Amino acid sequence: MAGLVCFLALVSSSAFAANWPANTLDDLTDIKEAISENHPGPVDPENPKFVDWLNDGYEAAEKLAKKAKTKADYERVLRQYVNGFRDGHLLLYPAKPENLIWPGFLTRSDGEGKTTVSFTSPLSSFLEGSKLVGCDGTKTSDLLEQRVFNVRTNKDIPHEKIVDSPHLFLVAQNDQTKPKTCSFLVNGKLTDLYLDWSAIDPETAESNVRKASGNHRPELGIQKIDGVWFISLPTFNFWGERAVKIQNLITELGDKKEALHKAEFVVFDVRGNDGGNSGWGDQIVAKLWGARTARNLETSKDQTVDWRVSEYNEQALREQAIRSADAGLTDASKFRIRVADDMRKSRINGTDLMLDEARPTGPGLPLQTPSPFQGKVYLLTDWYCASACLDFADNMRNLADVVHIGQPTSADSVYIDNVWKDLPSGEMKFSWSLKVYRNRLCANNIWYDPVIRWTGGEMEDEAVAQWVKTLAN
Questions:
Q1: Which of 86, 118, 148 is the last residue of a domain?
Q2: Which residues of 272-305 are buried (b: 16+ CB within 10 A; e: fewer)?
Q3: Which residue in 7, 37, 214, 344 has the fewest CB atoms around it within 10 Å?
Q4: What is the tens place of the pLDDT at every residue in 249-269?
Q5: What is the DSSP string of 268-294?
Q6: Residue 301 near residue 363, CB atoms below 8 Å
Q7: pTM for this prediction
């Protein structure tokens, strides 16, 4: 009986492995259909290249799907197709957390052709700072292009390569194409190293990538460092039970408002913030600058928006309305119900794109509210700032008393406001945008450059505090 069980297990494993081409093709086709039926891009008259990649990219990915042998191959095919749209809001993520493997070190590229070891385990510490020359006869630039940039980097945003480059040595457990032997310049001496890959859990992997990329993601909160107040907002992704964290912070801002208004230096710190719900940023502005200023900001921007009309999108909006209400975002909930109702009418009329006629569609009155802050106020960004973080940056940069400092932000396409679905294989989830901004302040895949750039080196709290105090001189 034991032998029969082993035999059945082998048959099952083999059959499952043989299904990777089918799984890849099924999910690839489902992604294409989801985009075709629900994303604004295929019916957007201002973006004909979107449809070109929808079809041409699919044909190329379809050929690769037939060759998939492992889950690593499966994921590469899907990511390469999705990444080709150059739309940061088209997203793939695992249906459940999965362990990855790494060789005990991660590298970072400087954007100018040099890749160095920037994070190591204790056993690999001798590699710290060494230059990666190549692996298995392939030079570093080609490795990065094949294994990282083609599958995760928006090539319209050059500095995104720096952020993504640490993923070169973080791979799926069954990746048969992972590097085996790599060459390094260690203290000026060429050294060949056989890579010893070991498991790493997702949370540790994410933490290591951030460290390797030089990203310092603060804890949510308010603190004073060496005379400088930091209002740290590492994410706006607060839903359900987690919403109480940002709600408590906003309450604390109200309690400390007088001290902040009188402070010599205040920094709104969005290092590591890659988005979430922009409503939280709006509430922060209203709490510290007042409801009138928040309203003026809202009406000062051209918010012409077209929504992609579909049954799936309508239902998703109604579900989001429930989640927003549960998080205490009453206005956001009402807004989504209103859009869903309008979408239903448009769907009945056979409309593909629906103009949101209730949104401001032209520049409103200029901001004339006096600043409540007596000292210097800064918005601190890094390369991660995207989505709702960019919405927050839109507002902060339009307040006369705020100076943008730090590193350039990331960038968004004009497509935004996401929903998601499970793919047929159950391996991945796919997320896409519901609407297209016509005249957004930060245009398609255009990032914000700070008024004052970070001087270089690790952007640690104490170093930032010292730097901020020099900016007033």
A1: 86
A2: bbbbbbbbbbbbbbbbbbeeebbebbbebbbbbb
A3: 7
A4: 999 999 999 999 999 999 999
A5: EE-TT---B-HHHHHHHHHHHH-HHHH
A6: yes
A7: 0.84
CB count within 10 Å of CB 423 equals 21
Q: Does a structural domain hold residue 7?
A: no
As a dihedral over the C-alpha atoms of residue 202, residue 203, residue 208, residue 213, rounded to 10 degrees, the angle is: 90
Q: 73 exposed, middle or buried (CB, 10 Å; 0-12, 13-18, 19+)?
A: buried
Does some domain include residue 43?
Answer: yes
Q: Confidence band (pLDDT; 50, 70, 90) for 363?
A: low
Q: Which amino acid does the sequence have at 174? A: N
User: What torsion, rounded to 10 degrees, do the Cα atoms 403, 379, 90, 218 define?
Assistant: 160
How far is Cα 83 from Cα 103, in angstroms, rounded to an integer?
26
pLDDT (0 to 100) of residue 371: 87
> Domains in the chain: how many in total?
3
DSSP per-residue letters across 30-89: HHHHHHHHH-SGGG-TT-HHHHHHHHHHHHHHHHHHTT--SHHHHHHHHHHHHHTT--TT
Alpha-carbon distance 29 to 361, whole Å?
A: 36
What pLDDT digit, counting tens, does each position of 40-97 carry? 999 999 999 999 999 999 999 999 999 999 999 999 999 999 999 999 999 999 998 8
Compute the Cα dihedral for 80, 85, 87, 91 and give only its sign. negative
Residue 177 CB-density burial (10 A; 0-12 exposed, 13-18 middle, 19+ buried) = middle
Pairwise CA distance, residues 5 & 175, whole Å: 28
Give the integer Cα–Cα distance in Å for 132 and 220.
Answer: 35
The residue range of the domain holding 46 is 14-86
Residue 150 clears pLDDT 70, i.e. is over it: yes
Residues 217 and 210: their CA atoms lie apart, in Å, by 8
